[in-house]
Amino acid sequence: MAGVDARGTQFGRVVGGTFTPIANITNISGPSRSRETIDVTTHDSPDGYMEFIGGLRDGGEVSLELNYDPTETTHDLDADFESDVPLDYRIVLLPGTPDEHTWDFKGIITEIGDEFPYDDKMARSITYQGVRQAGTDRHRGCLMALLSRDAILAADDHEYEVVPCPEWGGEVRLRSLTGAERDAYEQSLIETRGRSREMNLRNARAKLVALCAVDERGNRLFSDADVAALGRKNAKPLDRLFDAARRLSGLSDDDVDRLTEDFDNAQSDASTTD
Known about the structure:
The protein is of the alpha+beta class. It is about 25% helix and about 35% strand. It has 7 helices and 15 strands.
């Protein structure tokens, strides 16, 4: 085949493992990558040639052009632009086909430009600076390198999201839960009384938000002792933060249902034993 039709290529954010493509994109350029070299030439360099070793890598840029629609939610990129930490993005080639490719990378928006001509459509251009390439993943087959123990433990895998809370006069930064934090959160929803256990959803939203809300350095804003006070705040922004924290941490309604089912089964087994 001499060429492949690029039509249908997608670009968007990845939050909590969920990919949301940006609508109405007309062109995607990149990713372009480059790498510096370090001159290690010496008087002993052979055959009169300079010698080099590999230096720092530059994740390059990805540029988008789209037909701008101010009512389209995926075109609202202010939070991404304001974020000081790299966010997760994905390019999907040949989506929905056996040859589907995905390219994941962390990036920062460096420029957003809008055009409003009197005789043409509204347009928007966006430039992302790639910070780190996460790899390429083929549909039903992974092309990423196998990870070592050290690589897994050293990986910076936290995800962040800044959530507007105008009711409180600003924004709140959230961080995804660690595995241990998620286990602790789920355990906090179960209350033991003697030999019986009961589901305890009291302040469930405040508990999760308290675990996920962090400052610019990633430190928790709230301690466990703040949960009751946080639970007395306006439910509207609290619910907004709760939904974002669940999404970041991969918590779904199915997980809550599963936790309830496991709890019910445990209760049933305990009753049978008694």
